[in-house]
């Protein structure tokens, strides 16, 4: 046994040495490549600069030489440029150049040598490389010298990042392999042998104890033969089922659509899921070329559509497209997605009066501003409340018809549009497993108390077995509100509310996107083409905003922050363009129409005050872009700004992260649910233009090594808790809540 430990330890040490050697080779190769590239670029720059300044230098036009140097020296990696006369005196230099960087004798030595070209050398105890080349006239007489100094700090940063990454990997390998070796020797060899001995003794005594057999160790063939006479098909199937269940519960591997499917198969026997929401995932509209469909720009659609494509079932929603009726069957149902159908979409038809009262009136002019702290006063109208109740009853009736033959159906009600549906469903189908997921924040008890129908809304919500919010704070506020308004028993330890003999659990489930950090990670920070060019963007630096045209998204505040940025840091004018993609939203609501006008007026005002003949600081794109259209824009933007004034989660932040493998910076409002998870983003107060401006400058000047670290952490969070894991935890918790 000791010999086996010695052999294993030697192999372990050899592997560590091999990994360290690989890391050293990789770091050395990277440094050599970067230095070689730096030397080449420096020579090319020097040759080009020499051609530009030599005529002026020969004519002793030092002002012209100085202008040329100042223009070239704007590059951030150039530490300085200097021109010397034939005596070694400086006649022109860039602002950043330090005269004592190299000695006069070094410059004179280059001019006195017979070498016609200079050599790139590193300054001692510095990250600066200098290149000195002689300047000669038409007769090959040396008349001076040109010095170019390059800042090579990025080389050390890149090499340090390689070492950091490899050390982390080596430590992880050491930990995993060390643990495996310990477990291997302790449980596979010693324990397995002991268990086989025990099993043989049990057989000799006639005590057929199944747990005495080890069928996983190195003695598996022996124990399998011993156990075969007692092993039954039912027990084998049970063991396999238990093993599959154990694998599904492990959270150390990414959740994918396939894994979610296996989860549903193992736990719910492929039971269908029924979604109830106001917004439909696919909208069919009439066009000149016929009927076309689009996907609404909404985080709820992004998340729930991924869940339904993985699990199947039925989505019940309001049919809002002018061609929706033309594509459904006799049950008002169509299979979606259109290219590869995975689940059924059942459309409910509403009258204009119902849409105005339920959606425009009560949902968006009463409940929505009530929940979000955006200083828009809620409007409560009895007619809107009556329409809200009628539409909730209509959707509940349609759902009950679909689940009438299904035992213990899984029902997921989405958002504030259907707060009354859970209780209606539970009254008719007590066996239904009902969850209500609230996609917006929850207000304080004092704020919610201004709603005239607060008790009816809370009682409707408490019909659900599980009520989900994005963050724990919203759960806490909901419990406080119920405690103030409804006679109930609240268990703060288990976060449950018992009212009228029914218990509802209140839990946080931060919604996410279908990202696994493997199948859709970009291979480069920006595509080869320039996707912003079609919008008239000509600058190399681009900051991006992607939102619905919604007053909660803080677009006006963001624009004022951009204006403040260009005022405080004028050196970025003509170098940076801010692009705002704004998808029209809820245009039937007057406040949204007004907000669209406010945004456009603010864009025009800022552009008029700052723009030049060839550059506009802000490009405003007022139209819906599909996710496929947004992906190259996400990748090409160095910075993404999410400045919501209040937001349940915000999936734009996570979509931007999914498209950046190693670089890019996310600026994120502290008032989003996402800010609780994405702490490696630059967190800002969206009400402060100065804070937005400072964060944007920080983002643009952030070293690549820091961008790598931040983005790696952000991608880990989003991939670890993606929409598939969100769905698994929500559905599993729902089943447990309904069974309790």
Question: What does this 3D model show about the protein?
Answer:
With 740 residues, the chain is α/β, with parallel strands linked by helices. It has 23 helices and 23 strands. It has a 10-stranded mixed beta sheet with strand order 10-11-9-6-12-13-14-17-16-15, sandwiched between helices. A hairpin with a 5-residue loop joins strand 4 and strand 5.
Layout of helices and strands:
Blueprint: H1 2-58, H2 62-72, E1 78-85, E2 90-93, H3 104-112, E3 120-122, E4 128-136, E5 142-151, H4 153-205, H5 220-227, H6 233-249, H7 257-268, E6 273-276, E7 283-287, E8 290-294, H8 299-311, E9 313-318, H9 324-327, E10 333-336, E11 343-348, H10 352-371, H11 382-402, E12 410-414, H12 421-428, E13 433-437, H13 445-448, H14 454-461, E14 466-469, H15 472-485, E15 489-491, E16 496-499, E17 502-508, E18 541-548, H16 555-568, E19 576-583, H17 590-610, E20 618-621, H18 627-636, E21 639-642, H19 652-658, E22 665-669, H20 674-677, E23 682-684, H21 689-700, H22 704-720, H23 723-739
Parallel strand pairs: 6-9, 6-12, 9-11, 12-13, 13-14, 14-17, 18-19, 18-21, 19-20, 21-22, 22-23
Antiparallel strand pairs: 1-2, 1-5, 3-4, 4-5, 7-8, 10-11, 15-16, 16-17
Helix pairs in contact: 1-2, 1-4, 6-7, 7-8, 7-23, 10-11, 11-12, 16-17, 16-21
């Amino acid at each position: 046994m000791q010999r086996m430990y010695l052999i294993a330890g030697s192999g372990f040490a050899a592997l560590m040495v091999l990994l360290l050697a690989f890391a050293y080779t990789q770091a050395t190769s990277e440094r050599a490549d970067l230095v070689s590239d730096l030397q080449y670029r420096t020579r090319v720059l020097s040759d080009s600069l020499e051609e530009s300044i030599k005529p002026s230098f020969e004519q002793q036009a030092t002002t012209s030489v100085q202008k040329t140097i100042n223009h070239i020296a704007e590059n951030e990696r150039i530490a300085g440029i200097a021109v010397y006369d034939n005596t070694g005196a400086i006649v022109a230099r860039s602002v950043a150049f330090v005269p004592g960087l190299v000695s006069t004798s070094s410059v004179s030595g280059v001019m006195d040598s017979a070498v016609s070209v200079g050599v790139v050398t590193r300054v001692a105890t510095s990250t600066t490389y200098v290149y000195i080349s002689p300047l000669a006239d038409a007769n090959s007489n040396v008349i001076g010298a040109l010095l170019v100094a390059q800042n090579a700090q990025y080389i050390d940063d890149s090499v340090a990042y390689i070492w950091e990454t490899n050390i982390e990997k080596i430590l992880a390998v050491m930990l995993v392999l060390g643990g495996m070796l310990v477990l291997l020797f302790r449980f596979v060899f010693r324990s397995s042998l002991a268990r086989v001995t025990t099993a043989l003794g049990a057989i000799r005594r006639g005590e057929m104890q199944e747990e005495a057999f080890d069928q996983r160790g190195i003695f598996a063939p022996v124990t399998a033969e011993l156990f075969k006479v007692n092993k039954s098909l039912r027990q084998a199937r049970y063991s396999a089922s238990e093993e599959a269940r154990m694998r599904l519960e492990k959270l150390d591997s990414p959740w994918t659509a396939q894994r979610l499917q296996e989860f549903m198969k193992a736990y719910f026997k492929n039971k269908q899921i029924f979604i109830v929401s106001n917004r439909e995932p696919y909208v069919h509209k009439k066009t000149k070329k016929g009927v076309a469909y689009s996907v609404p720009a909404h985080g709820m659609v992004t998340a729930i559509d991924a869940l339904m494509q993985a699990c199947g079932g039925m989505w019940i929603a309001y049919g809002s497209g002018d061609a929706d009726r033309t594509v459904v069957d006799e049950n008002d149902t169509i299979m979606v997605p259109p290219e590869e159908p995975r689940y059924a979409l059942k459309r409910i038809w509403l009258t204009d009066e119902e849409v105005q009262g339920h959606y425009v009136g009560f949902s968006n002019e009463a409940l929505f501003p009530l929940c979000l702290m955006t200083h828009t006063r809620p409007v409560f109208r009895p007619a809107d409340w009556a329409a809200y109740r009628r539409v909730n009853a209509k959707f509940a009736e349609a759902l009950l018809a679909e689940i009438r033959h299904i035992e213990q159906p899984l029902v997921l009600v989405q958002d504030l549009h259907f707060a009354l549906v859970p209780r209606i469903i539970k009254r008719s189908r007590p066996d239904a497993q009902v969850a209500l997921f609230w996609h917006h924040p929850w207000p304080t008890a004092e704020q919610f108390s201004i709603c005239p129908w607060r008790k009816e809304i809370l009682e409707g919500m408490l019909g659900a077995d599980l009520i989900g919010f994005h963050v724990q704070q919203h759960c806490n506020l909901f419990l406080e509100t119920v405690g103030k308004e409804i006679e109930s028993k609240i268990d703060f330890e288990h976060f449950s509310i018992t009212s009228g003999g029914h218990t509802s659990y209140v839990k946080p489930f931060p919604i996410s996107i279908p990202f696994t950090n493997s199948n859709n990670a970009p291979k480069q920070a920006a595509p080869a083409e320039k996707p912003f060019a079609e919008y008239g963007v000509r600058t190399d630096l681009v900051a991006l905003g992607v939102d619905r045209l919604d007053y909660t998204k803080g677009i006006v505040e963001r624009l004022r922050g951009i204006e403040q940025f260009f005022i405080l840091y004028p050196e970025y004018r003509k170098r940076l363009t801010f692009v705002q993609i704004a998808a029209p939203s809820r245009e039937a609501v007057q406040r949204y129409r007004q907000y669209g006008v406010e945004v456009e007026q603010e864009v025009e005002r800022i552009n008029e005050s700052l723009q030049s003949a060839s550059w506009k600081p802000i490009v405003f794109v007022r139209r819906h872009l599909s996710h496929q259209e947004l992906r190259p824009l996400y990748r090409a933007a160095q910075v993404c700004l999410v400045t919501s004034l209040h937001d349940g989660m915000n999936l734009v932040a996570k979509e931007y992260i999914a498209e950046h493998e190693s670089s890019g910076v996310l600026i994120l409002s502290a008032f989003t649910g996402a800010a609780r998870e994405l702490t490696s983003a630059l967190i800002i107060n969206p009400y402060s233009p100065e804070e937005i401006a400072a964060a944007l400058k920080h983002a643009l000047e952030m070293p690549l090594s820091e961008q790598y670290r931040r983005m790696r952490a952000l991608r880990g969070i989003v991939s670890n808790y993606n929409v598939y894991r969100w769905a698994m935890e929500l559905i599993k918790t729902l089943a447990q809540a309904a069974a309790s």
